[in-house]
Amino acid sequence: MKNFNIGIDVCKDTLDFCMLEKDSRRKLQQGVIANKEKEILTWLKNLDKENVVVALEHTGHYGALLSWLLEEQLFTYYLINPLDLQRSLGLQRGKSDVVDAYRIADYIITSHHKLSPFKLPCESLRKLKALMTARERYVKMSVQIQNSLKAEMILSEKVALKQLIKLEQKQLKFIKNTIQDLEKQMMEIVKSSQDLNTTYTKI
């Protein structure tokens, strides 16, 4: 039996977490980490996977990296339907991400008997990792081109760079569209791996 429950509120750049003791519901830890692979792995390595249950809302591609790392590190975790959280008695969105993380942790204590741990099939796991790696590469390319455009816009006051700027703007648009397509594919993998409407089992 796992004695500690961690709720995580997922945002684009950060993960707010709260750890509760299962029996007493006493808050043991809370904090914020960056939604990046290195930071998440460092945090997970300090947790006892044999004694911890993790839960997060299904928030699309923002939670994909965390889901993949939880799978890779063999943690037990739940991917919660946001509608189920909203419908739960007394569970309203908090005034902060930390409050939401606490309520997610409390929710899995109350509803654990209705929940099934989330599990990505091996093939989906490999595909998700490939998509995340590709997305990271395109994001870096996007940042590089945006920085180049800023420099070129300044330089264009003295040098004719209209064609170069136009070309790079076209490339940037293509890269941003590619990132959106990759994120859509990532979200579809998570959705197809488990129908969130059947997260609850019949009592």
Structure description:
- The chain is α/β, with parallel strands linked by helices and 203 residues long.
- The protein folds into two domains: 4-114, Ribonuclease H-like superfamily/Ribonuclease H (Nucleotidyltransferase, domain 5, 2-Layer Sandwich); 122-198.
- It has helices at 37-45, 64-72, 82-87, 97-111, 122-155, 162-193, and strands at residues 4-10, 14-21, 27-34, 52-57, 76-80.
- A five-stranded mixed sheet has the order 3-2-1-4-5.
- Strand 1 and strand 2 (14-21) form a beta hairpin.
- The longest helix is centred in the last third of the chain and has 34 residues, at 122-155.
- Residues 195-203 have low confidence and may be disordered.
- Residues 165-199 form a coiled coil.
- GO terms for molecular function: DNA binding; transposase activity.
- It comes from Paenimyroides ummariense.
- One of its GO terms (biological process) is DNA transposition.
- Net shape: elongated
Question: How many domains make up the coordinates?
Answer: 2
Number of helices: 6
Q: Give me the secondary-structure category.
A: alpha/beta
- Spatial order of the strands forming the largest sheet: 3-2-1-4-5
Largest beta-sheet details: 5 strands, mixed
Query: Order of helices and strands, N to C?
Result: EEEHEHEHHHH
Coiled coil: 165-199
Keywords: Coiled coil
GO molecular function: DNA binding; transposase activity
Organism: Paenimyroides ummariense
Looking at this protein, list some descriptive labels.
coiled coil, 17% strand, 5-stranded mixed sheet, DNA binding, Nucleotidyltransferase, domain 5, disordered C terminus, alpha/beta, Transp_IS110-like_N, 203 residues
